[in-house]
Design goal:
By secondary structure, this protein is an alpha/beta fold. The protein folds into two domains: 4-210, DHBP synthase, CATH 3.90.870.10; 231-320, no CATH class. It is built from ten helices and 15 strands. It has a nine-stranded mixed beta sheet, with helices on both faces. A four-stranded parallel beta sheet has the order 12-15-13-14. A two-stranded parallel sheet has the order 1-8. The longest helix is centred in the C-terminal third of the chain and has 17 residues, at 271-287. Magnesium ion (MG) is lined by residues 138-139, 147, 325.
Length: 325
């Protein structure tokens, strides 16, 4: 069974009807496609976990349409307000203390006393505005697989489990949001993403803390994730027999002519272009039937940090922990 795919220009009323009835809908955001449900409806949120095969200890991001809506759910201090005003709508998720009297269903936060909040651009924002309630939405992929950047990618992964996919073409950013946890006079980077860390540090006027921390900060950030079927080999300077090549920039790895298939993230070496292409090219190379995907080095500055983070997870051994989302 397949899901219905409707262009964003025609999908609003149908999406609203499904959400109001407690169903889930795959929607475009500027980062990746999300699998959305009413964040105040426990049954809707449970359907999200079920469709993805996602463990329930892994909390979801609540998407909002305004700062007012966000403030009803999370407790903002001057620093978090500044970050929201600077980067929203956009690919930044803030983890904040949960308001005590919110109607967000506890499944969304997995029972934590914090909540991840983000204001997306485009269709998602309009939809949340019409619904008048936050939407819980993880990336619209089966747990542990590559995040979808097109309606077709959602269809081929979750199409049999959901009723509607709203199609707005390829997502502009191509990587999930950057997740920052706001503490008292501190900021911790939980997941690099669509807003480069340096831009957040500049706006906040303070450095982002990284790594370590007290326990699992972003439960979804486990080693094996974004896993294609093929093995992934990083920082490849040459292409082996039977390998596909994920290239970057103008210079090719040795033996590239023998690659089973090639995609270049950005021939000009532009990290923004590379981020937008990353997940769809990984899927395409995986579909080429190659046993392994060799990946040329990608610089780690700016958006390169998030690109390398996702590539490292795609390359991680698969037999460790079950990948949670
Ligand atoms: O760009 C994005 O962020 C996309 C689009 C759809 O908005 N969403 C997305 O959601 O990537 P998801 O569920 O795939 O990743 C959300 C991450 C998970 O790693 C989860 O563990 C973490 O956010 N998270 C959610 N709530 C949290 C909390 N209260 N504290 C720490 N981490 C949290
Ligand atoms: Mg995800």
């Amino acid at each position: 069974m397949k899901a219905e795919i409707l262009p964003a220009s025609e999908a609003m009323e149908r999406a609203l009807a499904l959400l109001r009835a407690g169903d889930v809908v795959a929607i475009p955001t500027e980062t990746v496609y999300g699998l959305a449900g009413d964040a105040t409806n426990g049954l809707a949120v449970a359907k999200i976990f079920e469709a993805k095969g996602r463990p329930r200890f892994n909390p979801l991001i609540a998407h909002v349409a305004s700062l007012e809506m966000a403030q009803r759910v999370g407790r903002f201090d001057p620093l978090s307000r500044k970050l929201a005003e600077t980067f929203w709508p956009g690919p930044l998720t803030l983890v904040l203390p949960l308001q005590p009297d919110t109607d967000i269903h506890p499944l969304v936060t997995a029972g934590l006393d914090t909540i991840a909040l983000r204001m997306p651009r485009g269709f998602g924002a309009a939809l949340i505005g019409r619904l008048g309630r936050p939407l819980a939405a993880p990336s619209a992929n089966s747990s542990g697989r590559i995040s979808p950047t097109s309606a077709q990618a959602v269809q081929s992964d979750l199409g049999g489990k959901i009723r509607l996919i709203v199609d707005a073409g390829s997502t502009a950013v191509g990587l999930e949001s950057t997740i920052v946890k706001v503490g008292q006079d501190s900021l911790r980077l939980l997941r690099p993403g669509g807003v480069p860390a340096g831009e957040i540090e500049a706006a906040a006027g303070m450095p982002l803390e990284r790594g370590g921390g007290d326990g699992i900060q972003a439960p979804g950030m486990m080693a094996s994730h974004y896993a294609p079927g093929a093995a992934v080999r990083l920082n490849a300077r040459s292409v082996g027999k039977g390998e596909a090549l994920l290239a970057f920039g103008p210079d090719r790895a040795k033996g590239w002519e023998e690659a089973v298939a090639i995609r270049n993230l950005s021939p000009a070496g532009d990290l923004r272009e590379a981020a937008a292409n990353l997940f769809s090219f990984l899927r395409e190379l995986d579909d080429s039937g190659a046993s392994s995907i060799a990946v040329e080095p990608v610089p780690v500055d700016g958006l390169g940090e998030a690109i390398n983070d996702r590539l490292t997870r795609a390359a991680a051994p698969r037999d460790k922990l079950p990948a949670p989302d």
